[in-house]
Design brief:
UDP-galactose 4-epimerase, domain 1; alpha/beta; 12 helices; NAD(P)-bd_dom; about 300 residues; about 40% helix; two-stranded parallel sheet
Length: about 300
Amino acid sequence: MGKIIVTGASGAFGRAAAEQLLARCAPEDLVFLTRTPEKLKPFAEAGAQVRSADFDDPATLPAAMQGGERMLLISTARVGTRVGQHRNAVEAAVATGVGHIVYTSLIAADAPGNPAIVKLDHRATEEIIEASGAAWTHLRDSQYAEAIARAMVIPALAEGRKADNCGEGKVAFVSREDCVASAVGVLTQDGHANTAYTLTGPELLSIPEALAMASEIADKPIVVEPVDDAAMFAYFDALGVPRHASDIVPDGPIPWSSDDMVTFGQAIREGYFEQATDHVAKLTGRPPRSLRDVMLQHCASWPK
């Protein structure tokens, strides 16, 4: 088997994937791409190849991807410009002989009615990969359990309340750890070509149910305030969150937009996240972690 490439290997997902791959593969068969190679010095010292690559500069990519057979394309963070970045990466990978591209996508990315605007970038990237001539595997992650256990729960506990437009829509929150392990499974096994997997946790819960669980663990109240989409926009406006991806200040304090968050909540409310699959277990050989398990892991960082 040829070399395995991991893009964005200095990010949280990429670094975790790199660590798992080093535990399973010969280091000389691993290529880790990053704009900041100095951050991956320990991996280079372990024998992996760390190469500089910038998706905004296609000229850097052919040399970075040379010799690769399989590539984990981790979606970049920049909503609105990342499809172009992903296209550059896919075209360079195929031109240098990469035969299989594994992409970190989103649950229901291919559902035509899904209102979450984030799905547009993911589905556009999936279509670029499908048309590239390489074999493909789409890993369609549900909402991360860690995002609930930290980004949502910490301010909700601090304020004692949470405005929410998700209604009673259900989500099988999935640990990022399980998504990483699933990606590593696809990269190191055969039989996953031209397949989409929906990666979920074991249990369907609404946001109010998830916050009730956090309230019980912390022994602190959280009042969930159901609001409509207009009120959710007003809530984010009051926090100074930009409305649209085009309004985001590069390297500014808030790297996301409220239309992304509000339509994400709408997608949950309308049932597009209401899937629980066995795909994590199929790809990793172990059951997925529960939201409670992830909350217990992070609750030491919650407000006392």
